[in-house]
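Colleagues,

For the teaching module next term, I've prepared a clean inverse folding example: a structure given as tokens, and then the sequence designed for it. I'd like students to try predicting residues themselves before seeing the answer, so please don't circulate the second half yet.
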């Protein structure tokens, strides 16, 4: 969408801010993981799930159960790598923006 500001046309994003936050956090963690020099057994799992999160976010509003599943798999895969803890926390916080766990 373009909006007129003065005599300029400025692009205005209509993306949900939660999706923007998720995409930013996922992108950051993907870069940190790619730069991490140590291989670990579940690295491919983390990379695949981060790619899945990115694809879900790029598609608009993602499914909350699928977001949470991916987060659990990523946390399980890289949870013990302390160098990635902040990035993982940022992804977790972004996922939580979509709502807390379902109440039973």
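(Answer key — instructors only)
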């Amino acid at each position: 969408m373009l909006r007129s500001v003065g005599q300029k046309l400025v692009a205005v994003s209509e993306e949900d801010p939660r999706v923007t936050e998720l995409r930013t956090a996922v992108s950051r963690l993907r870069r940190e993981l790619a730069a991490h020099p140590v291989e670990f057994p579940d690295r491919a799992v983390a990379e695949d799930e981060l790619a899945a999160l990115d694809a879900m976010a790029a598609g608009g509003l993602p499914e909350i159960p699928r977001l949470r599943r991916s987060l659990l798999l990523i946390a399980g895969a890289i949870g013990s790598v302390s160098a990635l803890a902040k990035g993982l926390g940022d992804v977790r916080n972004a996922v939580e923006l979509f709502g807390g766990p379902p109440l039973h």
